[in-house]
Amino acid sequence: MKMVKGLLLGSVAALIASSGAQAADLPVKAKAVEYVKVCSLYGPGFYFIPGTDTCIKLGGYLRVDVLANTNSDASGNTSGAGGAQNRFTNGYTWRSREDLNVDTRTATEYGVVRTYFDAVFSWTSDTYGGQGNGATVYSPIGTAAAPNNATSGGVAAGTVGVYYAFIQFAGFTMGKAVSQFSAPWTNYPGNNFDGLVGGGGTVTGVNQFTYTAQFGNGVSLSLSAQDQSAYYQAGVQNLGVLGTGSLGAYGASDYAGTIAPDLVAAVKVDQAWGLFQASFAAHDNHAAYYGGTELTGHPDDKWGWAGQLALSIKNIPTGPGDTINIQGVYTDGATRYNIQDLSIAGAITYFGGTNVPGAYQSIGFGMAPDSVFVNGGQQQLIQTWGMRGAYVHNWSPNWNTSVYGAYAGIRYNDTAKSAICGPGGNGVGGSFGAVFGTAGLTSCNPDYNIAQIGTQTQWTPVKNLTFSADLTYTHLDQKYAGTITYPGSASIGKPATVYELKDQDTVTLLLRAQRNW
C-alpha cells in the first residue's frame, strides 16, 4: 500500500507541475492599444496625445529663397557688402529653411491652456569680405571659417532660431510671441520682402507678459510688458565715441543694463468687414556712461513713445478675397516701432556712381537711433513717422498679385543736429565733420527719408504649395550734400578718397518656393 500511495502522490505532483508549466506558456491578454484619436475641439489637424486630455498639432513649412542683387535674405541692400555695389556685392543669395511648430491645448475649468513653439533651421549663403591685402574671407561677420554668420546657434554649418515659445492661459500670454503693438500682418501687408519701414514688426517674436480682454463682437484690449532688448533698441548713440567707419559720425551705441520693459496697449476691432487696430508703446532709453568708468557720469533716462493705427478692409468689390491693408505710425525716441527689427533702413551706407569732378564715387548715409548725446549732455530723442500698405488682388483661386509701398521720415532736433553737424550746420565742430572733413561739405543734415514700392505675384498650383516673385525698389532721400573724404573700408574694398554725398536707389528681387504642412 505504501508503494501504491507513493506512486499516486508522485503522479499528482507531476500533473500539477505539468499543468503549471503549460499555464505559464499560455499568452497573457494584452492591454488594449490606445490609438491616436482626432481632436475636433480646436480645428483640423489636432489629435489627442494618448493617455491624456491634451490635444496636439504639428505644423511647419519648407522654404527655398533665391534673391538677386543683395547680400541678405529679403531685407534689402543698403549697407555692408550689399551696399558697396562692387565685386563684394552678391549677385544672388540663397536660403533653404525648415520650420517646425508644435501647438498643444488642454480644456480646463479656467479655459483653454495653450502652449506654442516654433523653431526654424536655416542654411543661408553668405558674404566674402576683404582683408585689405588682396585676400578675402567668407562670412567676415563672425569667425573666418564660419559660414552663415554662425557666431551663435550654429548647427551643421547652418543656424537654428526660436521664433515663438509661449503659454496662453485665462487671457494671459507669457513668453516669446509677436508684439501686441504690431498689426496682424506684421511686416507683410502684401509682400514677402522683410525690410519694409513704416510700422511695428517682431515677426520672429519678442518676450512679453500680456493680458487680453475680450469684449465680444470682435473687440479686444491687450495690455503688455515686453522685453525691449535687441528687438526694440535702435541705439542710444554716444557721440563722444567717434569711429573711423561710415557710421562713426553717429558715435557708438552706449546701452546700460535693462531696467524697464516696453509698455504696450492695443485696441482691436476684428469683424467680417475687416479690422481696425490702435496701438501705443512707451519705451525707456537707458544709457550707460559718457566714458569708460562710473566717474565719467551718464545722461538721464528718457522715455520715448510710439503710436500706430492699422486698417484692413476685406471683401472689396474688385474680387473675392481681395484686401487692402494700411497702417501709419509716429515715434519719438522709440524708432524700432517704425524702422522695424528686420529692416536695415536704420543704418544705411550705400554707394553709387557720380558725375562730380574729383569724386571717386557717391555715397548716401542714414542712421535712425532712438537718441544721441554728447559728453556731459542729455539724450536727444529722434522723431520718426511712417506708413506702409498693400492692395492684394486674386485673379483666381490659384493666382494673386499685390502692389505695396512704404515710406518713413527720420528727424533730428536742433540740439542733435548741432552735435552732429556743428553749431553753424556746416560740419565744423560736429561729429560728422570730425570723421569726414568739411572741405567739400555744402549741406550737413542727418535727416533722411526712405521710400519703398514693390509688387508680388503668387501661384499656388496645389494646396499648400506656393511659388512667388517679389520685386522691391528702395530710394534713400538724404539731406547731406557736397563731398566728403571717406576713410575707406578694407572689408568692402572701398578706398580712402573723395566721395559725393548723394541720394541712392536699389532694387531687390526675391524668388520663393514654399510648401506648408
List keywords for this structure.
single chain, about 525 residues, mainly beta, Porin, 16-stranded antiparallel beta barrel, five-stranded mixed sheet, about 10% helix, disordered N terminus, transport, signal, porin, porin activity
How much helix, percentage-wise, in residues? under 10%
Question: What gyration radius follows from the Cα positions, in whole Å?
Answer: 30 Å
Q: Could you name the CATH class?
A: Mainly Beta
Number of helices: 4
How many structurally independent domains?
1
Low-confidence stretches: 1-26, 141-155
Would you tell me the overall average pLDDT? 90
Sequence of strands across the biggest β-sheet: 2-3-4-8-9-10-11-14-15-16-17-22-23-25-26-29
Strand percentage lies at over 45%
The CATH topology turns out to be Porin
Terminal CA distance reads: 84 Å
CATH homologous superfamily identity: Porin
Overall geometry: globular
CATH architecture: Beta Barrel
Structural class: mainly beta
InterPro entries: Porin_alphabac (IPR003684)
Function: Forms passive diffusion pores that allow small molecular weight hydrophilic materials across the outer membrane.
Subcellular location: Cell outer membrane
Keywords: Cell outer membrane, Ion transport, Membrane, Porin, Signal, Transmembrane, Transmembrane beta strand, Transport
